[in-house]
Amino acid sequence: MADASIEFKGTSFTLSVLHLKTSTLADIRADLVKKVAQAPDFFYLVPVVVSIEQLDCSVDYQAVKTLIEEFNFTFVGFTGSVDKEQRKLIRELGFSFVNTTRVDTSKKAAIAEEALATETKVTPAIPECNLYTDKVHRGQIRSGQQLYAKDQNLVVIGSVSAGAEVIADGNIHVYGSLRGRAIAGAKGHHKAQIYCQNLEAELVSINGNYWLSESMEQHWGSPVYIHLTDSELTSSKLI
Amino acid sequence: MARIIVVTSGKGGVGKTTSSAAIGLGLALKGHKVVLIDFDIGLRNLDLIMGCERRVVYDFVNVINGEATLNQALIKDKRVSSLSILPASQTRDKDALNKENVGKVLEELGKSYDFIVCDSPAGIEAGAMMALYYADEAIVTTNPEVSSVRDSDRILGMLASRSRRAELGLEPIKEHLLLTRYSPKRVEEGEMLSVEDVEDILSIPLLGVIPESQAVLKASNAGEPVILDTESDAGKAYQDVIDRLLGETVDFRFLVAEKKGIFSRMFGG
């Protein structure tokens, strides 16, 4: 057979997750009433995964499913990092158990809350700053010296002299005066930032956008951080 | 073990040779055995400042090439017997020196002297690198103006990366800041960088501040290092530098402009 009538493929979906914080069904019902009342159309037939991660005792799974469906949600299954026994029990009851990749519970709750309210995607993403580790330099960087932190943030404990150049693919931190050139996000990283205790730089650049000293008048001689907002360099006072 | 001190700056004309001569002679006057080496091959000046230009027979390059022994080339100072000068060659260029042979000469000198003061040429090329390579300490001579400060900063970078101590991963060269041609009056008028400004930019310990003085030019032309002029501000300031090099704590002088008295103000001083 050349063409099968069906085909199985893995695809990621954005699903709403309902985090249970109590096993008392009455409380859950009361809060659901309030929540659904805010936007009844939005929640109508929305697929929902119920997370039991934050529960410290077991819950009547069948009752939870019935309750969810009572509010016109489409029940998908349970989720949460729980022990094997619980999972086994859930499966035996005929419910599916959905594994997630995220582990940070406090963040997860916050994101889920936000997702329900604004329909924001909750695709787990590794924050970009995690790609970088720190290259730490102790001591002053003298005129004519050049320091490059490849695929790293650069931390300078000391000053960067006029005529010196510090370059990083990540952020640049100068615990001292920045009098030379600082080039952050050198490989094209628009979220890179430059921090220094005293801005007297010849040039600062983030992801190819640069300022010469004359553009730094506003915060000249101050502790500042410099970042990109809509491809425009912006400086803000640190303290 | 002799202390090898390089007097360096990056920029020319800031007072390296004047300072080398004053410091060399000052240390010798304190009873130490000192040898002054002129590393400025091709632009020999130290002999003039020391007043021994007519006594040069053999030079540093002759010793390096094995054409003369150290004892033949060393000139004993006529004022202080514990001071010797190893003059540079005026007819050769800076490539005449090589690390290995310079090292041998310094080692030989180290056996019989307490201090080896190396007067570095300006610039950051081979000659200056040769002068600083074997140093234990560096006196970074700086004028209170931006280009001199930047060049000193550059040399400080070289001291930290290109010296023998850096290459072998030994304890780094001890750095001293020597501010020369300082004029407190012009600092007050905002025309000149202050001691604090320079210290802030270079962040190395201050060894001395030599005030701008007529005595320096006079001393150079006479071949009498300015430290011998004990009446002059510059001479006194160099004396303080010697005391600090020898581990004493001495207050800094000549940092504020002298206030004119009421009479000199009335009659136009």
Automatic annotation (TrEMBL), chain A:
Assigned keywords, A-Z: Cell cycle, Cell division, Septation
The keyword Iron belongs to this UniProt entry's keyword annotation: no
GO biological process: cell morphogenesis; division septum assembly; regulation of cell division; regulation of cell septum assembly
InterPro entries: CAP/MinC_C (IPR016098), MinC (IPR013033), MinC_C_sf (IPR036145), MinC_N (IPR007874), Septum_form_inhib_MinC_C (IPR005526)
Recorded coiled-coil stretches: none
Keyword Cell division annotated: yes
Domain Septum formation inhibitor MinC N-terminal: 6-73
SUPFAM superfamilies named in the record: Cell-division inhibitor MinC, C-terminal domain (SSF63848)
Septum formation inhibitor MinC C-terminal domain: residues covered: 137-233
Oligomeric and partner information: Interacts with MinD and FtsZ.
Record-stated family: Belongs to the MinC family.
Function text: Cell division inhibitor that blocks the formation of polar Z ring septums. Rapidly oscillates between the poles of the cell to destabilize FtsZ filaments that have formed before they mature into polar Z rings. Prevents FtsZ polymerization.
Protein name (record): Probable septum site-determining protein MinC
Source organism of this protein record: Colwellia psychrerythraea
Gene that encodes the chain: minC
TrEMBL record, chain B:
Binding site for ATP: 11-18
Taxon lineage: Bacteria, Pseudomonadati, Pseudomonadota, Gammaproteobacteria, Alteromonadales
CDD domains recorded: MinD
Coiled coil: none
Name this polypeptide is given: Septum site-determining protein MinD
Matching Pfam families: AAA_31
Role noted for this protein: ATPase required for the correct placement of the division site. Cell division inhibitors MinC and MinD act in concert to form an inhibitor capable of blocking formation of the polar Z ring septums. Rapidly oscillates between the poles of the cell to destabilize FtsZ filaments that have formed before they mature into polar Z rings.
Assigned protein family: Belongs to the ParA family. MinD subfamily.
Example GO molecular function: ATP binding
Organism: Colwellia psychrerythraea
